[in-house]
User: What shape does this take?
Amino acid sequence: MPDDSAPAKVTVRPAGIEFTAAPGETVMAAALAAGYRWPTICGGLGDCLVCHIEVLEHAERLSEAAESETRAVKELRARSGCPVRLACQAGVHGDVVVFKRGVRMRKRIEQETSDG
Ligand code: FES
Assistant: This one.
C-alpha cells in the first residue's frame, strides 16, 4: 500500500520523463508544475480527451474515475487494452507509469517559439 502522504513519482513513456506529484494532484497538474507541456485543448476541464493516458503500471494508485470520465474514455479503453484515464482528472496516490506521446519540456517550446 503506497504512503498517501508522500509525493509520488510519475514516469511518462516513451520519452522516459519523470516528475513528482503531490498526494491527490492530477497527472497533468503535476506535469505542468514540473515545467512540462501536456497535450490539451480544453485546459483540464475533462471535455477534450486529448490529455488521455494509458496506464502501464499501477492504475490502482490513481484516484477512482468519476462516472463521466469512465464514460468518456470507454472507446479509447476498448482500443488500448490498458486502463485509460484522463490525465487532467486522475489524481496520483503512489508511483505510476503511463504512456503518453507529446509531453515536452515547456521551456524548449517557448524558446523555439521565440526563436522562430
Ligand atoms: S485536458 Fe481536456 S479532457 Fe483532460
About this structure: The chain has a mean pLDDT of 92. Residues 40-42, 44-51, 86, 88 surround FE2/S2 (inorganic) cluster (CB under 6 Å). DSSP finds three helices and seven strands in the chain. The first helix runs from residue 27 to 33.
